[in-house]
Amino acid sequence: MSYLQISRVGKTFARGASSTEVLRNIDLEIEQGEFVSIIGHSGCGKSTLLNLIAGLTEVTTGGIILENAEVNAPGPDRAVVFQNHSLLPWLTVYENVNLAVAKVFGRTKTPAQRHSWIMDNLNLVQMAHARDKRPTEISGGMKQRVGIARALAMEPKILLLDEPFGALDALTRAHLQDQMMDIHQRLGNTMIMITHDVDEAVLLSDRIVMMTNGPAATIGEVLAVPLNRPRRRLELATDRTYLRCREAVLKFLYERHRFVEAA
Ligand SMILES: Nc1ncnc2c1ncn2[C@@H]1O[C@H](COP(=O)(O)OP(=O)(O)OP(=O)(O)O)[C@@H](O)[C@H]1O
């Protein structure tokens, strides 16, 4: 059995007499250490799928199993990083990470161990220098890095990334993508990332899950990205495998499953 097993998952939101079937028959298996991206047009249900894995939303049909345990509620084994950081503004960078560390390791690590674990994770995203700053005093990219440190500090089985770099400028985004690849290489985490960015998906992923348009969206195709790691964006710009993968995703999104604006 795979590390994460999503079987025949469907999700219908119901309100009063009306209901919307957002996802239908989602089947996906993810192995430990894989980096998987989910791409699809706006509104197709990517965040809904991520929320189901996070346990923030309940499946309507089918089931999700993570390491032999059914997912039906949120838990520290699945940390989520959202597009807009969710740091608490009245706490410092250090205190924000500490909040998660205290919750997960309050009983199993001593205060000294917790302190060094917080600093390890801030160092990992190169934010230790800003440990005493509050979120309003640091840039958007820095806030995202602290959010990633906080998520990693929970030592989750799976890191769920919902367009983590979507609100950042292109250069900051590229920098964080490189850091994310470095972290993935060093820690070997299992990561699932939603993105709208084809280059980001190809650069970071082992596999790209392409979703059809909703309603009742499902997985249209899964593309393996057979590029060696570590990956360097400048070298890949002219790499034939990279360009082939990029073209396959573009064709899926803009030829076979074009976005049609709802009336
Ligand atoms: N709690 C909810 N109640 C009712 N409908 C919902 C709920 N959450 C999401 N939806 C609907 O489900 C559909 C998919 O939304 P979702 O946010 O998952 O899409 P998405 O692919 O992540 O979109 P985007 O790329 O624009 O972020 C939308 O039509 C949305 O209105």
UniProtKB/TrEMBL annotation:
InterPro entries: AAA+_ATPase, ABC_transporter-like_ATP-bd, ABC_transporter-like_CS, ABC_transporter_ATP-bind, NO3_transporter_ATP-bd-like, P-loop_NTPase. Belongs to the ABC transporter superfamily. It is a peripheral membrane protein. It comes from Devosia crocina. The keyword Plastid does not apply. GO terms for cellular component: plasma membrane. SUPFAM superfamilies: P-loop containing nucleoside triphosphate hydrolases. Transmembrane segments: none annotated. This is Nitrate/nitrite transport system ATP-binding protein. Keywords: ATP-binding, Cell membrane, Membrane, Nucleotide-binding, Transport. Residues 4-238 form the ABC transporter domain. Its main location: membrane. The keyword Transmembrane helix does not apply. It is found in: Cell membrane. GO terms for molecular function: ATP binding; ATP hydrolysis activity; nitrate transmembrane transporter activity. It holds the Pfam family ABC_tran.
